[in-house]
Amino acid sequence: MPTDTALLQEAGLPVTDLGPVLAGERHPLLFATVSGAHLYGFPSRDSDVDLRGVHVLPAGDLVGLREPEETRSRMWDSDGVEMDLVTHDLRKFVRLMLKPNGYVLEQLLSPLVVHTSALHAELVALVPAVLTRNHAHHYRGFANTQWRLFERTGELKPLLYTFRALLTGIHLMRSGEVLAHLPTLLTRVPAPPYLPGLITAKAAAEHGGADGVDAAAVAQDIGSLHRVLDGAQEDSALPDGASGFDALHELVVRARLAHVPAG
Question: Is 263 inside a domain boundary?
């Protein structure tokens, strides 16, 4: 899974050298990818760049008395663009994979790769073993949270997040594929015809208002997509539970041992 500079630029990401930032991480990185609006296909000119990934803590950090730093977060400014890097220790990330958590799977499968490794590819290969019909609950819940935010703020961003979550959930239930890119989802799942126009409008400002949106009609469309997601979950060929526990356990142990300092 090599880094594709052209793909990163096509997604609207600023041209910046992340090498020194990634090299400055205290613990080995298995991968770092781009999430958020750039992954979802509707970044604005002033969108932050959200980097997400996995680090590997030394075994000693997990067996002593001190709480391990399972999640690390860094923020910085690159030529006026705010960037942040959030990484989880491998064990925590894998535990999240084994839950019906679509968010971490989107990070893992993001095609916008800024750092990768052989273990990253192994994690990707194990995704089918953790996908279940219960992932519909994740996307249903995320859509509800974003819809409430839209109702409170009237901003376009949470409205697009609502549609994106519902369409990702429907597509996943039907196909077994985690797809987070809204413009591509519009070619796979029937959706309201005004969504491309909303994506175009979102490009102007990260926190712009949903001007001209018929709130009552949109609420009807959201309710309809919720019903489609319910039906897709009921009819899905995905299993009720994950089957990848043992393979992921072995991967975590192997990765931890591979990063034991020589002594």
Answer: no
